[in-house]
Amino acid sequence: MYLIADGGSTKCDWVVIDNSGNVIIETITKGLNPSVFQEETLLSRLNSNQALFEIKDQINHLSFFGAGCGTETPKSKLKKVLESFFIKAEVLVEEDTMAAVQAVTQTPAIVCILGTGSNTCFYDGEKIVNPVASLGYIIMDEASGNFFGKKLLQDYFYRKMPQDIAIAFNAEFDLNPDKIKQHLYHQENPNAYLAHFASFIFTQKEINPYFYRILKEGIEEFIERRVLLFEESKKYPIHFVGSIAHFSKDIIEEILNEKGLLLGKILKRPITNLITYHQNIIANGVKEN
């Protein structure tokens, strides 16, 4: 049986496909970002999922696409954990950009991720090209959930947030400074903690001028730094995957139109398209690289 996983820092989608291409299990675990979590935490999150635990010895092939898997050390760490859990599986671990590409295109394009974190790459029709290493939420991750969560906290404490929005923000979250610092500096997964504040933007009835401004500024920064560095961005469509992209699609379209860039697909969750991609692999008897 085949197992596909699309993992971020916050959560991970899992799908089990039998040898005939039928989906037999769909489940979710907490995030498995190896750049954030220790091996013990990664393994614990696998063990806590009953559906995966019951079927783990029946998996022959696992394709895991995840945030934090862009450099060799965390990638190897996660591969070791997965191999110790799925003991009979051939394990493939790739960066989440690979899942995004497989979900949206088979032809040359720029593919972007805007979720808890952010990333981008150029797919030339055969391979992924990414000349910039992803350094994570502290240095990079423009226009991501943690980027906008950080911006909301900054504006709130610097008193730059409109008063009515600040009152609602304070009512929605525990903004005790000591608790915030505890989460950021002493708890696991600080990037996902920051990202949960960004949900405030999208739970409101409308994108008011304040939310519109910070979304547009953040996405413009992402386009300038992570998309326009590719010369190919002026020639090929630009696809987006992730919850932030999904909820900001009108602003993304507006910015790309202003810059004369071609918008491709915007997909909230790649897992459905990944299922189809891997069902085709199974049907055609093609071995995944």
Cα-to-Cα separation, first versus last residue: 17 Å
CATH architecture of the domain at 2-100 and 270-284: 2-Layer Sandwich
Q: Which strand-content bin applies to the residues?
A: 15-25%
| Assigned CATH superfamily of the domain at 2-100 and 270-284 | ATPase, nucleotide binding domain
CATH top level label of the domain at 2-100 and 270-284: Alpha Beta
What's the Cα radius of gyration? 19 Å
- Low-pLDDT segments, ≥5 res: none
Task: Explain this structure.
This protein has 289 residues and is of the alpha/beta class. It has a domain at 2-100 and 270-284: ATPase, nucleotide binding domain (Nucleotidyltransferase, domain 5), CATH 3.30.420.40. The chain is built from 12 helices and 10 strands. The chain has helices spanning 39-47, 50-55, 72-85, 96-104, 145-157, 163-172, 177-186, 190-202, 209-227, 243-247, 249-258, 271-284, and strands at 2-7, 11-17, 23-30, 61-66, 90-95, 109-114, 118-123, 128-129, 238-241, 263-267. A 5-stranded mixed sheet has the order 3-2-1-4-5, sandwiched between helices. A 5-stranded mixed sheet has the order 8-7-6-9-10, with helices on both faces. Strand 6 (109-114) and strand 7 (118-123) form a beta hairpin. The chain starts with a strand and ends in a 5-residue tail after the last helix.
